[in-house]
Structure formats: C-alpha cells, structure tokens
Amino acid sequence: MLKEIVIAIQSYFEAHRFIVTHKLWKWIIVPGIVYAILFGASMYFFGKSATAVIQYLTLSTGLGGWIAKFQNSWLGFFFTFAGVILWLILMLFYFSLFKYIWLIVGSPIFAYLSEKTESIIEGKEFPFNFKQLTKDCWRGTKLALRNTLSQTLYLVGLLLLTLIPVVGWITPLIALFAECYYYGFSMIDYSCERHKLPASKSIDYISGNGLVFYSLHAILFVGWVFAPAYAVVAATLSLYKVNPE
User: Fold this and answer.
1) How many folded domains does the chain comprise?
2) pLDDT tens for residues 23-33?
3) Residue 53: what pLDDT?
4) Full residue range of the structural domain in which residue 68 is found
C-alpha cells in the first residue's frame, strides 16, 4: 500500500512534466478554470447552508439553550466542538456531491485525456473511436452514481457518529480518507477500462491518487484549476507503474 501511495505522489510530479513536454494545456486550463469557479461558488453557498442546517437543528430541538447553560464547562466545550465536526462532515458531503456531478459532466474530457496520455506513453496514436469514448463515459458515469450512493450511506452513519462526544471527533478524518479512496477509484478507472480490467479491479491501482487531489485544493484557485486533469494524467501514469503490461 505504501508503495502505491509513493507512486501516486511521484506520478503527480511526472504528470506536470508530461503535460508541459507534450503541451496538453488546452485540456487542462479551460476545464480547470470552469471547475475552479464552480467549486469556489458551490463551497461558499454550501458553507452557508451547512451553518444554517446546524443552527436550525439547535434551535428547533432546544439544544442551543441547553448547551448555553454549560458554555463555560467541559460539557459545553464538547458540544461546541461536536458542532464544528458536524459542519466539517456536511462540507465533505457537499464536496462529495459536487465532485461526482463534475465527474459525470467532465467524463468525455477525462476519458479523452486518459487515452491521449496512454497513446503518448506507448508512442502510437489511437484512432478516435466514438463508440469507445461513449463506453468510457458511460462506465465513468455508472461508477460515479454507484459511489455517490455508497458514500451517502456511510456519511449518514458518520453524521450520527458526530453526536457522540470525543468518539465523533475522528469522523472528519474517516470521511476524508474515504473521499480520497472514492475519487482515486474514479480517476484510475478510465485506464482500467482500456486494459479490460473490471471496475472491481480498479481498487488495486488507486495508489493515493485521491489524497494528492484533495491536497491540491489547499492551494487556492491554482490548485483547483490543476487538480482534476492532473489527477487523470497521474492516475494513468500510476497504472503503468504498477501494471506496465
């Protein structure tokens, strides 16, 4: 597992050199800017709605007044911290939904970019095949929808877990690692399709791709622009490292 994570991190640096060398910027910049603008706007409004949801719950249940009585005690601290954890989980849930919508909408670009990367690696041009592109897009869409359902189910469980003091504090970390897993799963699958590997086999090649993708979002706007396309190229390069045949 550690080997695959190291490969993924190295592959992002290699993806940058690969994109610069082969002048793939037109497949990076325009979709990336669209992604960055939509991501920034959606997370702003998601953040407001998450705050509104928590405020509504505390007021409608009378929990806010009860917590206020203990605001200077350890119990008050625990409940306040639990509110912060709940907000983080809601934001990760919103990010997850946004991510899968983007994966579905951008699947033609991601599928083509993955194929273009592979054609350069192998030193040969793959003739454009609309049928194969449609197949790749449909597989990516099905995978995104399936992952959305499974993630929603476990995130509901994590939301309930946040209500438990102390124990619930680890839920954002669990949710983050799960998010990394599912995103890496989606990105690597474009290459797995061309290698005729079933979707269930993609798990062997995730290699921390999603972890680096999420880390890039710490770089405001610039990281948002590069994150999606770099993830596709890095995933394709990663697959060739662990499964070069």
Assistant:
1) 1
2) 999 888 988 99
3) 79
4) 2-242
